[in-house]
């Protein structure tokens, strides 16, 4: 964060007024870097989707862009479910005034096996009748953690052994939903423990036995309360309830509400995608972790519409492509994973969702979501069709011709050639993308004179090259200026080319290392006579000498253009 501020990647919004929680601005380097990320997405998802690969069944991948507004008709958000359901349950710590997302805090309760056995035996009749037992006995021990991994790590470190606990061993009741573990402490005593999000725990237990994540004390938490995450505003001067509107919480809905217009006014044919990028707003109750959870952030979303029978194949196609894509722009390695959601995590309409997750320093050893790839079925178009009373079915002419050729009945042809397409949604966060790329690039190498450097992939690097005269005399600045002008002319579309003649050459290299500039060209005492320059590689620090008039080609090659 210090480097981000110092080098002009990211600043606190309204900093001179003390800042505003959940809002961040980009400085010169950050703004260019984010633009590079958005453009990489645009090029690889819209202009040449999936790098020109063919999709399932050898079909071409075609995508078109839209740019839709932040403010839409309020009914859009009723249809999408955001007005009714876009809520986060929160609990407050009454002592410290800290607020926690109840579904993000994990609690392990451990009870002695004999205690649980007694409760279950004593209540066997109630359990047999299908009743749930509210347990309000103090646990033998409890631990509160920010993630399941953290919670389980505590168990591993603090008990002698543990094994998965099978619910059937005890009784049929839902006190101990998965994941549950049986543990044995150092004295050989057995425990059963369950790991659940705070919100689930609160449903089962009396609030007074839940330790606060802030203090580890019991009795200081409020019951969970719902917060709607949508910002609202008023359209027009009167600011009455009738004029209430929302700032979009996602760019995706703009695509669904323009689906019909795009189909009617362009030549797209299923399967095809519509992409939308732009700013979304969520009144996050606990904005935190730098830009990771902001209240204003940019998304890059694609809605890919396909025939229902092909949707699972397309889901797999986009899921795998998106994972591969993040790797090609610099997130290769063990910090990036693809996490397929469990069946019970999926919405009723979805046949699959996966997240591309990155191990941010603040989530480690866990991971944080960078992008979600969801099979959304026909849910959104159906919702908008119902709420707007506008038909959003797609007429599949190719299907009609095929069925006609196969000699199918008129009824079957009519029925099968009109349908609501299914939708696959790769939804990426550009700010989270920038943050992940910054974290991945940040490297400390104590063996270098200036140990901090940013190892950006050349496509993402905000400055592509720098030109330095070794000293500001002997004709070197003039040659440097000429080379700088030539390179700027060639590369301005993809990023900056800097010229710097102040300070020692070591300091100038260090400045460029911190900015993540991959190549520095230096005009030195030999240049005029031999018409050569040195090129320094940021990551190795190694220099090579190349022909002055080949500098542009060298850079073009290295930038993969
Ligand atoms: N249309 C689906 C959708 O919006 P999401 O998982 O809620 O799905 C997609 O958001 C992406 O947007 C996330 O993977 C994340 O990268 C980004 N995002 C969501 N909330 C964010 C926040 N508060 N701050 C920064 N980025 C956020």
CATH level-3 fold name of the largest domain: BirA Bifunctional Protein, domain 2
Main sheet: strands, sense, barrel:
7 strands, mixed
- The fraction of residues in strands falls at 25-35%
Number of helices: 19
Query: What's the domain count?
Result: 3
Bound molecules: glycyl-adenosine-5'-phosphate
> Order of strands side by side in the largest beta sheet?
3-14-15-21-18-17-16
Uncertain residue ranges: 167-174
What is the CATH homologous superfamily assignment of the largest domain? Bira Bifunctional Protein, Domain 2
According to CATH, what is the class of the largest domain? Alpha Beta
Please tell me how large the radius of gyration is. 29 Å
Overall average pLDDT? 90
- Which word captures the global form? globular
């Amino acid at each position: 964060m210090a480097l981000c501020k110092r080098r002009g990647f990211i600043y606190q919004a309204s900093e001179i007024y003390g800042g505003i929680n959940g809002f961040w601005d980009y400085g010169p380097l950050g703004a260019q870097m984010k633009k590079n990320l958005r453009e990489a997405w645009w090029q690889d998802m819209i202009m040449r989707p999936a790098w020109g690969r063919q999709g399932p069944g050898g079909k071409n991948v075609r995508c078109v862009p839209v740019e839709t507004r932040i403010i839409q008709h309020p009914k859009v958000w009723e249809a999408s479910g955001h007005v009714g359901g876009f809520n986060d349950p929160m609990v407050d710590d009454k002592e410290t005034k800290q607020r926690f997302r109840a579904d993000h805090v994990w609690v392990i309760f451990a009870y002695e096996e004999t205690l649980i056995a007694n409760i279950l035996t004593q209540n066997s009749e109630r359990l047999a009748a299908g009743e749930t037992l509210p347990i309000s006995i103090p646990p033998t021990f409890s631990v509160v953690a920010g993630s399941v991994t953290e919670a389980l790590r505590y168990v591993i470190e603090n008990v002698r052994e543990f094994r998965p606990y099978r619910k059937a061993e005890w009784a049929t009741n839902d006190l101990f939903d998965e994941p549950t573990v049986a543990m044995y402490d150092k004295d050989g005593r057995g425990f059963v423990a369950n790991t659940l999000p705070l919100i689930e725990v609160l449903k089962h237990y009396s609030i007074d036995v839940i330790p606060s994540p802030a203090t580890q004390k019991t009795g200081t938490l409020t019951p969970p309360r719902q917060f709607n995450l949508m910002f609202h505003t008023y359209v027009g001067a009167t600011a009455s309830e009738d004029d209430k509107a929302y700032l979009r919480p996602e760019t995706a809905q703009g695509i669904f509400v323009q689906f019909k217009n795009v189909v009617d006014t362009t030549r797209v044919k299923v399967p095809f995608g519509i992409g939308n990028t732009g700013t979304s707003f969520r009144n996050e109750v606990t904005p935190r972790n730098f830009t990771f959870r902001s209240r204003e952030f940019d998304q890059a979303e694609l809605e890919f519409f396909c025939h229902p029978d092909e949707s699972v194949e397309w889901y797999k196609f986009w899921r795998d492509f998106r994972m591969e894509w993040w790797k090609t722009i610099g997130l290769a390695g063990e910090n990036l994973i693809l996490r397929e959601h469990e069946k019970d995590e999926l919405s009723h309409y979805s046949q699959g969702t996966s997240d591309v997750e990155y191990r941010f320093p603040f989530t480690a050893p866990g991971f944080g979501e960078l992008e979600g790839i969801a099979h959304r079925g026909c849910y959104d178009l159906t919702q908008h069709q119902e709420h707007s009373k506008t038909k959003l079915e797609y007429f599949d002419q190719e299907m009609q011709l095929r069925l006609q050729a196969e000699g199918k009945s008129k009824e079957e042809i009519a029925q099968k050639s009109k349908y609501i397409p299914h939708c696959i949604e790769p939804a990426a966060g550009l700010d989270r993308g920038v943050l992940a790329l910054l974290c991945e690039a940040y490297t400390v190498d104590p063996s270098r004179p200036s140990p901090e450097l940013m190892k950006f992939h050349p496509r993402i690097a905000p400055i592509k090259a720098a030109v330095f005269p070794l000293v500001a005399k002997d004709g070197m600045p003039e040659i440097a200026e000429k080379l700088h002008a030539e390179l700027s002319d060639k590369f301005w579309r993809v990023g900056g080319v800097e010229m710097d003649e102040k300070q020692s050459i070591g300091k100038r290299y260090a400045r460029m290392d911190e900015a993540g500039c991959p190549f520095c060209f230096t005009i030195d005492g030999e240049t005029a006579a031999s018409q050569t320059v040195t090129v320094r590689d940021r990551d190795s620090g190694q220099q090579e000498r190349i022909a002055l008039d080949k500098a542009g080609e060298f850079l073009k090659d290295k930038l993969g253009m």
